């Protein structure tokens, strides 16, 4: 039988490779529900009585990268900068993405042959009692000097490797999108905690101002009681109001400490070593451009991650189908083999071999059939998850647009209530000083004013938190162009 030359074997392998195909369905992005426009209108309400709504500083193009800078708060900016450096949750997500990147390289390595080489030296003593030994033949000891190498290669005739690379690439891109989503979520959580803390600082300031005012009212009631124009119950009511407000002032410190501790954990420092100076929250948050619903698919990292998982599931169908085709392997070995060191690396000591094999699995009790059906069902599952992700994203944007709109309207109403409460307290104070009413009327007006002022402060904090939630729902300015090209 005639032996094929290395060149002929290589040519045959290339011909077979060229004739190979990639089995399995090619990927097409699944269709998802769409909406022509947002149901909630982001147009701001009429101007509040004590100012104007702050015009939207970020355009749709500006909602990218460092979105938190639109609040023009240096303290918040400094805290957000520490997230990328010190947050351990973000570091863990980063390492997960880096592992996925390496998996792409692992899959690509299957495109190429594996090579191994190395020397070996043996001292061999032959046996005289083997069945093949010849009586009278000389048996002794001899050396074997071997310097050889081996090569193995399974050409990707059916596209199994190509589909593996495709799946690994999609998984790595999904991991990159998940990393972006973790980063966005952590930064949004930090901003929300920060604004909630500053909202409590506003309430703390209101309570401190009220305590100073109530102290003056207590002195007034005591003077009037000593002058015989007020009753002892007036003094008791004033004292009760003062102590009750002092208790509320202490209670705010509990909630503020918890937000401060949460911020410390987010920036990766022990809570016992971190503190933020008080800074009341004032002003109105900027308007956030919502864009079009169709843009949301490109701007939400969690949606992008779900879509990339669909691509990976589609590629795994091709990997499963490739198992129906024969495994074809090319092997080769060569080197130098001699019994003496002096003739080791010489032409007559050279040896080589080339070979090829094809193996087809004939019976596996339905294993490949089940695996193929499993991969198709996994693909359908990922498509359903992707579509549900899109629907949830639409809901979250609509929810937060609605929240922003309602809070803006509520802020206007509450501002009017605060102004009315101030006027009521002023009238009640004049009536009390004039002796035409009891201190109970003053106390009622004081309570109404403080409650409305605290409600107004709470609405402002909720407005800021809602604007951050809207940015989170819109993807924080991220887009699919930031996915790595692997």
What overall geometry do the principal axes of the alpha carbons give? elongated
| Unreliably modeled segments | 44-62
Alpha-carbon distance between the termini? 48 Å
Overall pLDDT metric: 88
Class by helix and strand content? alpha+beta
Tell me the name of the CATH class of the domain at 34-96 and 175-327 and 389-482. Answer: Mainly Alpha
Count of distinct strands: 4
Would you give an account of this structure?
- This protein is of the alpha+beta class.
- It has a domain at 34-96 and 175-327 and 389-482: Outer membrane efflux proteins (OEP).
- 57% of the residues lie in helices and 10% in strands.
- The chain has 9 helices and 4 strands, in the order αααββααααββαα.
- Strands 1-2-3-4 form a 4-stranded antiparallel sheet, with helices on one face.
- Helix 3 (88-108) runs antiparallel to helix 4 (160-226).
- It is elongated, with a radius of gyration of 38 Å.
- The model is unreliable at 44-62 (pLDDT under 50).
Write the layout of secondary structure elements.
Layout: H1 6-19, H2 74-86, H3 88-108, E1 114-125, E2 141-153, H4 160-226, H5 232-266, H6 296-299, H7 301-322, E3 327-338, E4 350-359, H8 367-433, H9 439-473
Antiparallel strand pairs: 1-2, 2-3, 3-4
